[in-house]
Specification:
Metallo-beta-lactamase, Chain A, B_lactamase-like_C, alpha/beta, Glyoxylase-like metal-dependent hydrolase (Beta-lactamase superfamily II), globular, hydrolase, 12 helices, RibonucZ/Hydroxyglut_hydro, 7-stranded mixed sheet, about 20% strand, WH-like_DNA-bd_sf
Length: about 350
């Protein structure tokens, strides 16, 4: 446990749900842990005890990726963990594959609706039927990353071959949905849950807060051990997501300090205000490092060793490139860096 993490508290200690089992973390709130085929090898999903128009059952929050082994684990949960009750609805915090990948399958299995923000629903709908990469592979991603200094031909070839990366993990999205907006109150069982919008990580991420239980389902907006990925990708190449993210997490500060945070990765924890401050300070420090490095012209690829000290695989490199560009763009839009395109077609940033 690092110094920052030691300032947080894990009420359940090192306890984790075993495959196809659940752990109750608050009254009527159960924790599921599903595998991911990446270095970040798991996602946390949630079951909320529900009652809709007199029908007892469960709300599912986030779904895992579209893989047969995850479907099989879900089937075991349906058979053994629901007390013989049905799933009544599905909520997805945002459109990333580990959250929405099996939403359509679960919704069809139970004949229930999907709740989601419009921006993330539409993005997921588009990307799941898109074959040009949708941000993480394909020809447009290759051109985008190459323009930011990634010129390793093997890496670019692998990126080009990932044109169905998103659709491979999200094979389909429900044909209709129920829109969630910031500040909505959703009655789930005996409790009201308020939606809290977040930007920067996903187009329109929705966290869920229950005042009665003092529980925040934070999705990917607030994680205990790792920093939320904030990236610039080819689909919005001039975006400036980092300030959006920092403003978004500040919106959690009015919540009670003893709120139990249920993150999508890592373990449930308390220490909300501490973690928000840690993330704010982390990005301030990284911005200062990037600004110092840009005393001479730097591409995104040049900045990678400034921000990431460890060896990166291809999957990690795409997110690292996206995140490094996000820091460069934050400084560029703040007027601290200039941006030029060299004769080699590479974009470089320099201190003003």
């Amino acid at each position: 446990m690092n110094l920052l993490e030691s300032r947080l508290h894990y009420p359940l200690g090192d306890t984790l749900p075993q495959p196809a089992t659940t752990i109750e973390v608050a009254p009527g709130v159960r924790w599921i842990r599903m595998p991911l085929p990446f270095v970040l090898d798991h996602i946390n999903l949630w079951l909320l005890r529900d009652n809709i128009e007199g029908v007892e059952g469960w709300t599912v929050v986030d779904c895992g990726i579209g893989r047969d082994e995850v479907k099989a684990l879900w089937q075991q949960i349906f058979d053994t963990q629901l007390e013989g009750l049905p799933v009544l609805r599905v909520i997805c915090t945002h459109m990333h594959p580990d959250h929405v990948g099996l939403a359509d399958w679960i919704c069809k299995h139970w004949g229930v609706p999907l709740f989601m923000s419009m921006t993330d629903y539409m993005t997921a709908k588009h990307w799941s039927s898109h074959t040009n990469g949708a941000g993480t592979g394909g020809a447009t991603a290759v051109a985008h990353f190459a323009s930011h200094g990634l010129r390793d031909q093997e890496a670019l070839a692998q990126l080009g071959a990932r044109s169905t990366y998103y659709s491979g993990l999200v094979p389909s999205v429900p044909e209709s949905y129920i829109r969630m907006l910031d500040g909505d109150i959703i009655r789930i069982g005996d409790h009201n849950w308020q939606t809290i919008v977040g930007y920067g990580h996903a187009p329109e991420h929705m966290a869920l807060f229950c005042q009665d239980l003092k529980v925040l389902i934070s999705g990917d907006m607030l994680l205990p051990r790792i920093s939320t990925n904030i990236s610039v990708f080819d689909i919005e190449p001039m975006s400036n997501p980092l300030p959006l993210y920092l403003r978004s997490i500040a919106s959690f500060n009015p919540l009670p300090e003893d709120t139990l945070i249920l993150p999508s990765h890592g373990k449930p924890f308390t220490g909300l205000h501490e973690r928000v401050n840690q993330q704010q300070e982390h990005h301030r420090d990284r911005l200062a490092e990037v600004l110092e490095a840009c005393a001479t012209p730097q591409s995104t690829h040049d900045i990678l060793p400034v921000l990431f000290k460890r060896k990166l695989d291809l999957h990690q490199t795409t997110f690292a490139m996206g995140e490094a560009t996000a820091h460069l763009h934050a400084l560029y839009y703040d007027g601290k860096l200039s941006r030029t395109v060299g004769e080699d077609g590479i974009i470089r940033f320099t201190c003003v």
